[in-house]
C-alpha cells in the first residue's frame, strides 16, 4: 500500500511539475512572439524610412536634371539665335564684297587701259619699244648692283679678315705660348772620332776586307780621308747610318776589328737601334696621349727620330705639330684627339720615303690606310701641304700647326739658292697680272708688294688682284708660314707754280 501511495504521490508531483513547465513554456513562447512582432514592426518602419529617403533623393536628382536640361535648352536657343544673326551678317558682307569685286574689276580694266595708253605715249616720245626700255633699265640696274655688290664684298671681306685675323692670332699665340719647345736645327751625326790615325788602317783591314764587310752589312759608305782622327759615314738611309755609327764606335772601343767581329757588332747595333726606335715611338704616343695605335705605326714614328728635314728633326717636328693642333682644336671646340693624331702622323711618310717612290704625303696616306687609321687622320695627312682641299677643321689645324712649327726662327735651314728662287718666283707671279707697274718681295719672302698703274687698275680691281695673287702663290709655291700680299694703288697730281 505504501508503495502504491508513493507512486501516486510521485505522479502528482510530476503532473504538477509538468503543468508548471508547460506554463513556463507558454510564457516563453508568448514573450518570443511579442518580441518578434516588435522586431518586425521595427524593421518595417526602417524599411519605410529608407524608401522615403531614397524617394526624396531621387526626386531631388530629377529636379536638378530637369533644371540642367532647361539651362541647356536655353543656351542652345541662344546659340541658334546668334548663328542666325551671324548668317545674316555674312550674307550682307558677301553681297557687299561681290559689289566691291565688280567695282575693283572695272577699276582694274580702266587702269590697264591707262597703262597701255601711257606705254604707247612713252614709246612715241622716247622712240624706243617696251622691250628696248626694259633692256636699258635692266642694264642700268645691273651696273648699279654690280658696283654696290663690289663695295659690299670689299667691306664684308675687310671685316671678316679683321675678325678672323684677330681670332686666329689669339688662338695661335695661345697655342704657341702653351707649347714652348727648343728649336735648334739638327743634323744627323755622320762623323766617328778615332783615338788615333792608326785606327784607320785597322778599320780598312788587310786588302780592305774590314771596310768592305762593314759597308756590305750596313749598306752605307765609309769615307776615310786625310781628316785627322775621324771617319765620315755617308748614307742616305738615316737608320742604317745610325747602325753603322754605333757599330763602328763599339769596334773602335773594343779594338778587335775583323769581319766576324764586325758582323757581331752590326747585329747588336741593329737590335739596339730597333729597340730605340720602338721606345721613341712609344714615348711619342705617350707624350701626345694617343692610344690604340698599330705597333708598326709606332715603329715608323720612332724612325722619324733619325730623319731630318731642312735640319729639323722630324720626330720633334711631328710632336710639336701634334701639340699645337690639339691646343688649337681645344680652343675651337673640335675633335682634339683627331687633331693630335693627324699632327703626329702627318709626316709619317718621311720615315720610308727613301725606300718608296713618291712624295711623303702620298706615302704617309697609304701607310695610314694600310694600318686602318681613321679616315679623318688620312685626310689630315693628305691635306697638310695642300695636295687636296681640306674638308675638316682638324685638317686645317694640322696644316696650320705644320706651318707654325716649320716657320719658327731657327727651326729650319733653307739654302741660298732655294731662297733666291722663291723670291724670284714671288715677283714673277705678281708681275704676271695686267696693270702691274712694279713688284717687290720683302721681309725674307714673307710679304710681296705689288704697285699697280692707277689709270688701269681701280680700287675694286686692286682688291680682286690681291686675292688672285694670293691664290696663285698658294697654288704654285711651297713655303713655311704665310705670305702677305699688298697691292698699292696711288694717284698723284703735280703742278708747278711759275
Could you explain the architecture of this structure?
With 498 residues, this protein is mainly alpha-helical. The protein contains 14 helices and 8 strands. The strands form 3 sheets. Strands 1-3-2 form a 3-stranded antiparallel sheet, with helices on one face. The longest helix is centred in the first third of the chain and has 125 residues, at 2-126. It starts with a helix and ends in a 10-residue tail after the last strand. Residues 182-189 have low confidence and may be disordered.
Key descriptive features of the protein:
three-stranded mixed sheet, three-stranded antiparallel sheet, mainly alpha, 498 residues, single chain, 8 strands, 14 helices
State the end-to-end distance: 201 Å
Number of continuous helical runs: 14
Structural class: mainly alpha
Number of strands: 8
The helix content, as a percent range, equals 55-70%
Low-confidence regions: 182-189
Shape: flat
In a nutshell, what does this entry contain?
This protein has 498 residues and is mainly alpha-helical. It contains 14 helices and 8 strands.
Topology:
Elements: H1 2-126, H2 130-178, E1 191-193, H3 198-204, H4 209-218, E2 221-223, E3 230-234, H5 238-254, H6 259-288, H7 295-303, E4 308-309, E5 312-313, H8 314-332, H9 336-345, H10 360-370, H11 375-383, H12 393-407, H13 416-431, E6 436-442, E7 447-452, H14 459-476, E8 484-488
Parallel strand pairs: 7-8
Antiparallel strand pairs: 1-3, 2-3, 4-5, 6-7
Amino acid at each position: 500500500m505504501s508503495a502504491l501511495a508513493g507512486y501516486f504521490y510521485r505522479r502528482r508531483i510530476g503532473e504538477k511539475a509538468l503543468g508548471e513547465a508547460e506554463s513556463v513554456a507558454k510564457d516563453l513562447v508568448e514573450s518570443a512572439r511579442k518580441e518578434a512582432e516588435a522586431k518586425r514592426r521595427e524593421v518595417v518602419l526602417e524599411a519605410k524610412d529608407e524608401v522615403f529617403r531614397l524617394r526624396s533623393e531621387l526626386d531631388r536628382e530629377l529636379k536638378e536634371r530637369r533644371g540642367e536640361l532647361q539651362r541647356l535648352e536655353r543656351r542652345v536657343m541662344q546659340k541658334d539665335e546668334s548663328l542666325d544673326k551671324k548668317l545674316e551678317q555674312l550674307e550682307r558682307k558677301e553681297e557687299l564684297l561681290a559689289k566691291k569685286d565688280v567695282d575693283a574689276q572695272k577699276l582694274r580694266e580702266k587702269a590697264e587701259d591707262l597703262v597701255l595708253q601711257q606705254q604707247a605715249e612713252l614709246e612715241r616720245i622716247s622712240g624706243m619699244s617696251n622691250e628696248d626700255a626694259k633692256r636699258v633699265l635692266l642694264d642700268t640696274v645691273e651696273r648699279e648692283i654690280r658696283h654696290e655688290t663690289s663695295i659690299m664684298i670689299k667691306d664684308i671681306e675687310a671685316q671678316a679678315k679683321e675678325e678672323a685675323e684677330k681670332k686666329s692670332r689669339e688662338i695661335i699665340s695661345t697655342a704657341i705660348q702653351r707649347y714652348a719647345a727648343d728649336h735648334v736645327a739638327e743634323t744627323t751625326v755622320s762623323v766617328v772620332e778615332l783615338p788615333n790615325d792608326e785606327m784607320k788602317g785597322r778599320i780598312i783591314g788587310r786588302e780592305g776586307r774590314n771596310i768592305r764587310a762593314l759597308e756590305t752589312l750596313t749598306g752605307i759608305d765609309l769615307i776615310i780621308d786625310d781628316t785627322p782622327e775621324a771617319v765620315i759615314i755617308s748614307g742616305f738611309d738615316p737608320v742604317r747610318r745610325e747602325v753603322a755609327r754605333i757599330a763602328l764606335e763599339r769596334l773602335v772601343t773594343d779594338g778587335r776589328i775583323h769581319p766576324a767581329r764586325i758582323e757581331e757588332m752590326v747585329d747588336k747595333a741593329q737590335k739596339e737601334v730597333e729597340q730605340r726606335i720602338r721606345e721613341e715611338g712609344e714615348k711619342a704616343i705617350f707624350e701626345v696621349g694617343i692610344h690604340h695605335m698599330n705597333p708598326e705605326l709606332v715603329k715608323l714614328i720612332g724612325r722619324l727620330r733619325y730623319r731630318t728635314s731642312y735640319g729639323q728633326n722630324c720626330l720633334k717636328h711631328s710632336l710639336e705639330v701634334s701639340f699645337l693642333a690639339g691646343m688649337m682644336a681645344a680652343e675651337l671646340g673640335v675633335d682634339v684627339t683627331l687633331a693630335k693624331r693627324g699632327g703626329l702622323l702627318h709626316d709619317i711618310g718621311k720615315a720610308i720615303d727613301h725606300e718608296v717612290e713618291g712624295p711623303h704625303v702620298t706615302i704617309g696616306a697609304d701607310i695610314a690606310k694600310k694600318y686602318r687609321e681613321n679616315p679623318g687622320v688620312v685626310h689630315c695627312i693628305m691635306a697638310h701641304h695642300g695636295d687636296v682641299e681640306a674638308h675638316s677643321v682638324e685638317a686645317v689645324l694640322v696644316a696650320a700647326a705644320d706651318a707654325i712649327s716649320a716657320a719658327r726662327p731657327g727651326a729650319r735651314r733653307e739654302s741660298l739658292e732655294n731662297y733666291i728662287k722663291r723670291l724670284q718666283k714671288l715677283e714673277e707671279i705678281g708681275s704676271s697680272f695686267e696693270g702691274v707697274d712694279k713688284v717687290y718681295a720683302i721681309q725674307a719672302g714673307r710679304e710681296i708688294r705689288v704697285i699697280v698703274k692707277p689709270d688701269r687698275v681701280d680700287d675694286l680691281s686692286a682688291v680682286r688682284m690681291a686675292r688672285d695673287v694670293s691664290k696663285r702663290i698658294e697654288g704654285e709655291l711651297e713655303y713655311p708660314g704665310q705670305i702677305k700680299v699688298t697691292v698699292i694703288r696711288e694717284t698723284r697730281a703735280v703742278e708747278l707754280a711759275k
